[in-house]
């Protein structure tokens, strides 16, 4: 069965010291609690090794926010999937809309990143989602399907089975405007249908599909109650244990 997951995406926030404190705080808050989902924190690269040292890897799991599209070599400033894995991280967010919009990451580049992540035993948390104009013109399904097809559908069923998806409507990210519970369920069901057509029912049923975009303590319960919403990718509300914990406890 697919897993329920709540993953925090710290983005470009927190100094190293602040990040260590936040991770420690979350680990302490969750220790001994019965939690009904996997909890992941995805941190900036420089935080990974230090955060890994203060979490147990079970109660709180670790991920990066990106990795390079090349394995190694003369790519100044880049961080490879192997380097990410060597810190103890098990996950990597790929294809976040901020990477696509501000850093020119195309479907073809992301396809390389996904391959390298999988080769290094990292679970990609692969983000997809339409911008407002696409939603307003009714193109959201087409856009999301294309993002999945161009970066993921060359994977074998076995490899695809290792991927987590995150539907993040771009108009809902950091805006305080969440997709309605019905909009989220409708898209997640469409995504699962798309996976079923390509890989069959077993793979589609086993894929965790997270929702992201202004998810918070007030709306998480309703969003996660949908049959095809398997958790959340959380930005702003993941930056404090006080706001992250209630989302985890929404399951
Ligand atoms: P947000 O970000 O929760 O701050 O809207 C979510 C994300 O971008 O992953």
Protein model, in words:
42% of the residues lie in helices and 15% in strands. The protein is of the alpha/beta class and 251 residues long. It has a single domain (5-248), classed as TIM Barrel (Alpha-Beta Barrel). An eight-stranded parallel β-barrel has the order 1-2-3-4-5-6-7-8, surrounded by four helices. The radius of gyration is 17 Å and the shape is globular. Bound molecules: 2-phosphoglycolic acid (PGA).
Tell how many strands the DSSP assignment holds: 8
* Uncertain parts: none
CA-atom Rg in angstroms:
17 Å
Which fold name fills CATH's third level, the topology?
A: TIM Barrel
Catalogue the ligands: 2-phosphoglycolic acid
Structural class: alpha/beta
* CATH top level class name: Alpha Beta
Query: Count of DSSP helices?
Result: 12
SSE topology:
Layout: E1 5-9, H1 16-30, E2 38-43, H2 48-52, E3 61-64, H3 81-86, E4 91-94, H4 97-102, H5 107-119, E5 123-128, H6 132-136, H7 140-152, H8 157-160, E6 164-167, H9 181-199, H10 201-206, E7 209-212, H11 220-224, E8 231-234, H12 241-248
Parallel strand pairs: 1-2, 1-8, 2-3, 3-4, 4-5, 5-6, 6-7, 7-8
The structure holds 2-phosphoglycolic acid.
